[in-house]
Amino acid sequence: MDTLLQFANLVLHIDKFLGVFIHQYGAWVYAVLFLIVFSETGLVVLPFLPGDSLLFIGGAFAATHEMNLGLLIVLLVAAAVSGNTVNYLIGRAIGPKVFNTHIPVLERFLDRAALQKTHEFYERHGGKTIVLARFIPVVRTFAPFVAGVSQMGMKRFQLFNMAGALFWVLLLVLLGYFFGNIPFIRQYLNVIVLVGIGAAIVPVVIGGVWKMMRKDSRGGAVRKPNGG
């Protein structure tokens, strides 16, 4: 519980933590930001890292000349692209093996038909998914992994991976650069971060719940005549 509270405090006051780190360790902040963005996008077990907030706040510090804007953008784009690539390769390597283990316990939970549907979905909509997922916390961590599991083509994946990374980094860093030091935004940054995360996650959750409810209602409609 203490660890969760400390992490929540870090996310809500990340501008203060980052400012202290810059003053104490200087250029090492670039390595830390690279590592965090790489880990959030590259390691499926770390979807909770505050990537969006870091990009915005990094841009704000670049506006006050505490960080170099060009270097920040280049490193963050490199971290986002390489992170997604590693995540994709992990999914591509272990996905088919997991679905073909022939272990009874796993076969109970893994649906090969669902894997085929996922592959077909990524063939049709994978590009849009990879780009748009950049702006949705948690989803952006799993999207490249699922793309790898579904065997989305490497060249096609990398095209949208790089486009999405560039768009994501440029938008959030430049928003921070131009607006991050406005007194009102600086004062209520933690609230803005929470609203932004909520605005990205809530529609995804509602969509998932809606699909589950529709699936259940259709299932009930099919079962009802048989039971009558």
UniProtKB/TrEMBL annotation:
The keyword Endoplasmic reticulum does not apply. Keywords: Cell membrane, Membrane, Transmembrane, Transmembrane helix. It is found in: Cell membrane. Pfam families: VTT_dom (PF09335). It is a multi-pass membrane protein. The keyword Metal-binding does not apply. Residues 49-177 form the VTT domain. It comes from the Bacteria. Belongs to the DedA family. This is Membrane-associated protein. It comes from Paraburkholderia lycopersici.
